[in-house]
Amino acid sequence: MSIPYVSPQEFSAEILRHLKHSLGKDESHASVYDWRMSLSLALRDHVVDPWFASTRRTYEARGKRVYYLSMEFLIGRLIEDVAVNLGLDAVAEEALSALGQDYAAVVANEPDAALGNGGLGRLAACFMDSLSTLGIPAYGYGIRYEHGLFEQHFEDGAQMETAETWLAQRHAWEFERPEVSYPINFGGHVEEHEGKAVWRAGETVVASAYDTPVVGWQAQWANTLRLWAAKSTTAFDLDSFNRGDYMAASAPEALARTISRVLYPDDTTDTGKELRLKQEYFFTSASIQDLLRRFLSEGGDLRALPDFVAIQLNDTHPAIAGPELVRLLIDEHGFEVSQAITTARSCLAYTNHTLLPEALERWPEDLFIRVLPRHHRIIQLIEAAHIAATGSDIRILEHGEVKMGELAFIMAHHVNGVSALHSELVKETVFADLHSDYPGRIINQTNGITPRRWLYSCNPPLRELINETIGTTWPDDLQQLDGLSVHAKDPAFLDKFQAAKDANKTRLSNWLQARDGVSLNPDAMFDVQIKRIHEYKRQLMNLLETVALWNEIRENPNAGWTPRVKIFGGKAAPGYVVAKQIIHLINDAAKVINADPATREYLQIVYPENYNVSMAEILIPATDLSEQISTAGKEASGTGNMKFALNGAPTIGTLDGANVEIRDCVGAENFFLFGLTAAEVTARRAVPEYARRAVEASPRLARVLQQIEGGVFSSDDKTRYSGLVQGLINHDYFLVTCDFDSYFGTQRDVDKAFADKQAWTRMAALNTARVGWFSSDRTISGYARDIWKTPSLISARGSRQDVA
Ligand code: RUG
User: What DSSP string describes 572-584?
Assistant: First the structure.
C-alpha cells in the first residue's frame, strides 16, 4: 500500500467540507473545537482506505489474528499520531494555517483520552501502534469508559480529584457499531439439565461496540481498537414513565451504564470489588463472544481455534477469559471439559506486570459465586485438571478467594514478564511453584515504546537533527539511531543536539508560564520524575534529597552549585493515603524552598497538576535528568525510563526493571547508578531495625526528617507529617532510608557531570543513539515470534507518491 499524495490546498478543502457538512458550521463562526473536529474527521477519512484494505487482506490471508485484551488503553490525543503515521503532519499544519488557524492550538484542543492509569495502559497504546506498523492483524479490546482517569487539582498542596469528561464533546475518531452487541450475564444460578449445566442469569446488560481505527507508520496497515460500552437490554421502562415514576423509568439504563462509567483510579490494588469484577467480565466476555462470532462466520472449525486466534491478557484483569472461553466451548458448542480447557489454553497468553502481592487480583469466593456462578464451577474444573496433570499443590480457589494470577497462569500457554529482571523474579517469587509445574512457560518480553509518538512527534527539534544526520528511515527501524554514535564525538553535532534540548526546555518553560504562571531558569538542570505516586517509586526519597540539598546550599552558598529544577508529575490513587501525603509534602516543601532568596538561584521545585500523556510529551523532550529510583525488585519494567533515554536524558536510577537493560545498552558510564540491588534489598529487610539504623548512620538524613517532622514545611499544621516520618523510621518497607546516602552522593556526581556541558551533551546523545532496542516494534516482534506465531502481512514498505 502506498499513501496517496494530498496537497495542503486539497486538505484545506477537506477540512472545510467537514466544517460545513459534519459540523454544520460556517468558517466565520467556527470555534477551535469546530476546527479540531473538522481536522480530525478529515484525517480520519484518510485512515479508512488503509483500514479496509488491511481488513480485506486479513480475510484473504485467513491467518491468525491477535486479540489484545486490556482494561486500559491510555491513548492520549490522537490528531498528531494519525497525522504523523499518515505522513500528513506537515500538510495538515500548512492546510490549517492557510485557513488562518494555529495548528498547535487546534491540536491542543483535543482532550486526552485517559482510558488508563499509567504504564500498563500506555504500553497497550504503544502496542496498538506497533501492531499496525508491523502489519500484524490485531484487535485491541477494552472498555469505553465515560470518565477516564480523574483530573487532579491541588488545594493548598493537597490532591483533589474531579471526574474527567473526555466524552463531553464528540469523540472524532470512533465509529459507533450499534449492530455489534452482545448480552453479558451476571448472577443467578446454575441448573443441571440432562447432564448439562444451564446458567440462569439474574441480570443481563448489553455490550455495544465502538471502533477506532489505529493506523500504523506510513499507513501500511490499520487495525481496530474496539471498546465496549454497557447499555441496558431495555433502554427505557415506559410503564414506570406513564405512572410518573421517571427515576424508575430510567433506572435500567442508568444501572447498566454504571459498568462502563468509570475507570478505576488505581493501578496497584483491587478495589471496588463487585463493580470492578463486573467490568472485567463485561469486556472480556464481549471480546470472546466477538472473536468467536468472527471465527465462526468465516466457517472456522472450533477445534482449530488456536491456529487462528491468539488472545493476550494484559495483566490479570481479563483473566476470566480462560473460564469464559471454556464455558462457551462446553455450554454452547458441545466440547468435552478437557478438550475445552486444552483448546482455550492454546489460545491464551498472559502478561504479568507486577510482583506486588496486593496487585495480583484475588476475589472473595462468595462474591465471585454471586456474580459468576457458572464460571466458579468452571474454575473448579480447571483447577482439578491442573492438579491431575501436575500433582501440584497450587490452587486457584483457596482460603475463600479466587486467585486470578494463578488462574491466568494455569490457563496460558505462555506467561511473560516485562523486563529481563522482572521475568526472572516472576520465576523465583510470585510464580515459583507454578514455574516448576510448567517449566518453560514463563518467558520474557521487555517492554518498549513507540518511537512515532515518543520521539518523532513529541520532539520536532531532535527529529529534524536525526533526519539530517542519519536519514529519515529510523522511525520504524529504531536501531538505526546507533548511527548517531559516531557523531557523538563531533562538537558541531553536539552543539546541535544541545540546541534541540534547549529549544525543548524553552517550549516547556513557555508552556508552564502560560498555564501556571511558573518561570523556570532554562540554564538549570531539569531533573524530572513523572509517574504514578507510589511508595515503591520513591518520590519521597527524591524530596528528601531535595531538602538535604537545600540545607547544604544554605550552609555553603558559594560552593558553585549546579542549578536544578526538580520537576514532579503524577497522580495518587484517591484512597492511597500515604501517596497523597507525599504529594502534599512535595507541594509544601516547594512553597518554602522556592521562596528562599538564599537558594532560589540554585534550587526550584515544580509540580504541575494533572499530569497526563500530553504533559509527558512536553516534559520528556525537555528533561536533562531522568529519575528512575524505585526500590530494586519492585518496578516491573518502567517505560518512562525508555522515553527519557530516547529523548536524550541520562538516568539516575537503581538496578530495577528495564533500567538494567537500559544501562547495558547506553553503557555504565552514561548512567548514574546507585542503591541496593534486588538481592540486597531482600537481605536488608532481614536486618532488625534497618531503617532506624540507616537514619542514625546518616546525620544528613536525620536532619531532613527532623525538619519535616518538626513542621518546617507545614507551619500551619506542625504535626502533618509526623506519621509519614515515623512510618519511615519504623517501617520503611521500600528502603528509602537505606538508599538515601547513595542517592544523595550520586546526585552530587550528577552535579559535577552536568557542569561539563559538552561531556554531558555527549552522554545525552549516546543515550538517544543506543536505546533503539526499546522500540515497541521490537517488543511486538518478540510477542509475535515467541508467543502468538503471527507473521506480518505487509511485505515491504510502500513509498509516498510525492507529486511535484
Ligand atoms: O508498574 C508497572 C510498570 O513497571 C510497567 O512498566 C508497566 C507496563 O508493563 O506496568 C506497570 N503496572 C503494573 N501497571 N499496573 C500494574 C499492576 O497491575
Answer: --TT-HHHHHHHH
- Cβ(675)–Cβ(742) below 8 Å: yes
pLDDT tens per residue across span 423-436: 999 999 999 999 99
> Helix/strand/coil (H, E, C) string of 2-32?
CCCCCCHHHHHHHHHHHHHHCCCCCHHHCCH
The catalytic residue among 18, 122, 353, 422 is 353
430 Cα–ligand 1 center, Å: 15
- Of 317, 354, 530, 644, best ligand 1 pocket probe by most atoms within 8 Å of the beta carbon: 354
Q: How confident is the model at residue 804 (pLDDT cuts 50, 70, 90)?
A: very low
pLDDT attached to residue 270: 53
Ligand 1 atom with the smallest distance to the CA of 118 is 14
**Parallel, antiparallel or unpaired: strands 362-364 and 348-351:** unpaired
Question: Which atom, in ligand 1's list, is nearest to the CA of 356?
Answer: 17
Share of the chain above pLDDT 70, in %: 98
Can you name the residues that pair with 190 across neighbouring β-strands? 199
Query: Could you confirm whether 634 is annotated as catalytic?
Result: no
638: CA distance to ligand 1 center in Å?
A: 7
Query: Can you tell me which residue has the cell 442469569?
Result: 201
- Identify the structural domains of the chain with CATH numbers, from first to last: 8-447 (3.40.50.2000), 464-678+745-774 (3.40.50.2000)
Clarify whether 537 is annotated catalytic. yes
User: Cα separations (Å) of 253 from 104, 229, 398, 657?
Assistant: 39, 12, 36, 44
| pLDDT tens track for 221-234 | 999 999 999 999 88
CB atoms under 10 Å from CB of 10, counted, come to: 13
Nearest CA to ligand 1 atom 3: 638
Is 789 catalytic? The answer is no
639 in active site:
yes
How far away, in angstroms, is 354 Cα from ligand 1 center?
6
Its ipTM equals 0.99
Distant-in-sequence, close-in-space partners of 90: CB < 8 Å, separation ≥ 6 = none
CA of 314 to the centre of ligand 1 (A): 10
Mean pLDDT of 174-196: 95
* pLDDT of 267 strictly over 70: no
Is 531 known to be catalytic? Answer: yes
Q: What is the mean pLDDT of the chain?
A: 95
Mean pLDDT, residues 60-78: 96
8 Å CB contact between 124 and 68 = yes
CA 115, CA 375: separation in Å to the nearest integer? 27
pLDDT digit string, tens, across residues 89-126? 999 999 999 999 999 999 999 999 989 999 999 999 99
Q: Which atom of ligand 1 is nearest to the CA of 636?
A: 4
Encoded amino acid at 555, one letter: E
| Residue 241: predicted pLDDT | 85
**3-state SS class at 774:** helix
**Where does ligand 1 bind, in terms of residues with CB under 6 Å?**
118-120, 123, 267-268, 315, 353-354, 359, 418, 447, 635-639, 657
Q: Report in angstroms the alpha-carbon separations of 478 from 80, 473, 483, 791.
A: 19, 9, 10, 20
In angstroms, rounded to a whole number, what is the distance separating the alpha carbons of residues 295 and 309? 8
Q: Please give the C-alpha separations between residue 358 and each of 351, 405, 754, 798, in angstroms, as whole numbers.
A: 17, 11, 39, 48
Q: Are 140 and 68 in contact (CB under 8 A)?
A: yes
Whose C-alpha lies nearest to ligand 1, atom 10?
A: 120
Distance 702 CA to ligand 1 centre (A): 33
